[in-house]
Structures are given as structure tokens and as C-alpha cells.
Amino acid sequence: MTEAPLIEMRNATVWRGSTRALHRFSLSIGQHERVAILGPNGAGKTTLLKTITRELRHAPDDDSRVSILGRERWNVWELRKHIGLVSHELQAEFTPYASVFDVVVSGFFSSIGLDDRLRARVRPRHREQTQEIMRELEIDVLADRAYRDLSTGQQRRCLLGRALIHDPHTLIFDEPTAGLDLAATFDFLARVRQWARNGRSLVWVTHHLNDIPPEVERVIILKNGEIVSDGSKASVLTAECLSDVYETNLRVTEVDGHILAYPGAA
Ligand SMILES: Nc1ncnc2c1ncn2[C@@H]1O[C@H](COP(=O)(O)OP(=O)(O)OP(=O)(O)O)[C@@H](O)[C@H]1O
């Protein structure tokens, strides 16, 4: 039996308020692919991710279809066991009282932190798994600290822990290195690369080419809610393609699997 794709979209239009963020959009991403999604501000990248995680729905046109892991209908909480999300947007959403432990364990409940009702549902196995993940990410010593008081790099590791708690086969990252310094960026990347090498799938949205994990094989570029380029990393991340998309003269080079862009001649 062939494996259902992670996402299969056909002619999907997604509105954000009165803005048509994706327009009759078609895309298929397989379950074991490692994909980066790039594009200028407002291109529709976050909208696409939120469509995959079912935070957003497409307009129900007759010939449109969006299926995730082979199903058109999902209980969002069930879906989150299969797909972990790390988004810099989540960073500001935890209450000032949430501890590091609360943030990571809340992944079990697909909640943003714990309220009293959820805290009563934390079982010994949740605690054990949370402690194991915190140890792996070297945030176990911070378990009781207030999440809000940590550095951005430590906070991002907490979000990674929260996303990994169900050991999902797919991780989705929305600008995961935003706000991180160089050391924290490369630390975060090293952790993700280790996880990706174990055969899991990755969907990585970024503005920074050199943050794209070398394990990424496919790159999709969006602009104005449409795909303008989709193919192997080598075929898409060219000076010609990027200069065209960003409407500026760029050059591109590769170092140890990392792609770097820099300004072309004026
Ligand atoms: N909550 C919202 N309400 C109304 N319009 C929105 C909302 N969120 C996004 N949009 C609009 O939808 C379009 C796509 O936005 P989206 O955030 O998906 O783009 P993006 O590629 O992720 O951008 P960025 O790189 O700036 O994060 C943009 O025109 C944006 O202004």
C-alpha cells in the first residue's frame, strides 16, 4: 500500500480576513520529505503551515481538496500527535507563571502551558517523558524556572521539547531561528539535524538561507500566495531564481551543505 502524503492540496484557496493568502494552491509533500519553504514577507508561508496544522481551513470550492496524512477530517488534538510545531510566534503566548516543565509537558495536551484542569491530568508517564526530553535538550536543570525569564535560545529549546513530546514523524518549523544569536542558532540547528537524520520529515519555513538544515532536499518558493519555484535545493536556490523572487541582485554559494546568499554586483 502506498503511503499517504503529509499534505495533498488541490486548488485550495485560503483567506486571512479579506486577504486571499493562498490562491487555488496545489502542492503535495510526502511523509519522509525534508522541505524548506521560502518567500518574501506576506508570500503565504505561515498560512500554508497553518493549513497543514489545521489552524486554518481552505474555502470549500467544489474542486478543492486538502488532505493531511490521507485524511480530510481531523481532530486537531489528534493531528498534533503526528505533527509537532515549533513557531517563534508561540514564544510570547505562555503566561509569566509557566515553568519550563509546564511548557514542555503541555505538548501532551496540545495546549499552551497548563491550567489547573490540565495540571490535574499530568500522569507519572507524562512527567517521566517530559524529564527525558528536557534532559536530551539540556533544559532539565531549568525545569522549575519561569519560561519567560529564559534566554530566547533556551526558550526555543523548550518549544522544541514541547513539539517532540509525542515523538511525531513530522516537525514543522516557522522561522525557528528568529531572534537567536549565532551560537543559539547553530545549537538549535544541530539538534534538529540529529532528529532529521533519523528519517523524520521536516518542513522548515525561514527567511535565512544559511539556517536551512543541509538535510533539506527540496525547496519551495512562494510569492503572492502561489508557488514560483519547487524542486531540488540545487535547482531552486540559484542566484538567478533568488534574484528574481526577491527583486534584487544576489549571488549564492554553498559551504558544507549550507547555502549562503550575498549581494551581487551593483
Ligand atoms: N490575521 C490576519 N488577518 C488578515 N490578513 C492576514 C493575517 N495574517 C496574514 N495575513 C495576510 O495574508 C497574507 C499572507 O500572510 P502570511 O503570514 O501567510 O505570509 P508569510 O509569507 O508567512 O509572511 P512573513 O514572512 O512576513 O511572515 C499577507 O498578505 C498577510 O498580510
The number of strands is 11
Strand order of the largest sheet: 5-6-7-3-8-9
Share of helix among residues? 25-40%
Beta fraction of the residues?
A: 25-35%
Oligomeric state as shown? single chain
CA-based shape: globular
CATH architecture: 3-Layer(aba) Sandwich
Structural class assignment:
alpha/beta
Low-confidence segments:
none
Average pLDDT level: 91
Protein name: ATP-binding cassette domain-containing protein
Organism: Elongatibacter sediminis
InterPro entries: AAA+_ATPase, ABC_transporter-like_ATP-bd, Metal_Ion_Import_ABC, P-loop_NTPase
GO molecular function, one term: ATP binding
Can you summarize this structure?
The chain is an alpha/beta fold.
Structural topology:
Blueprint: E1 7-16, E2 19-29, E3 34-38, H1 45-52, E4 65-68, H2 76-82, E5 83-87, H3 100-105, H4 116-119, H5 124-136, H6 152-164, E6 170-174, H7 182-197, E7 201-205, E8 218-223, E9 226-232, H8 233-236, H9 239-246, E10 250-255, E11 258-263
Parallel strand pairs: 3-7, 3-8, 5-6, 6-7
Antiparallel strand pairs: 1-2, 1-4, 8-9, 10-11
The structure holds adenosine-5'-triphosphate.
Write up what this structure looks like.
The protein has a single domain (7-263), classed as Rossmann fold, CATH 3.40.50. The longest helix is centred in the C-terminal third of the chain and has 16 residues, at 182-197. The mean pLDDT is 91. It is α/β, with parallel strands linked by helices. A hairpin with a 2-residue loop joins β1 and β2. The termini are far apart. It is 30% helix and 26% strand. It binds adenosine-5'-triphosphate (ATP). Adenosine-5'-triphosphate binds at residues 16-17, 19, 21, 39, 41-47. GO terms for molecular function: ATP binding; ATP hydrolysis activity. Pfam families: ABC_tran.
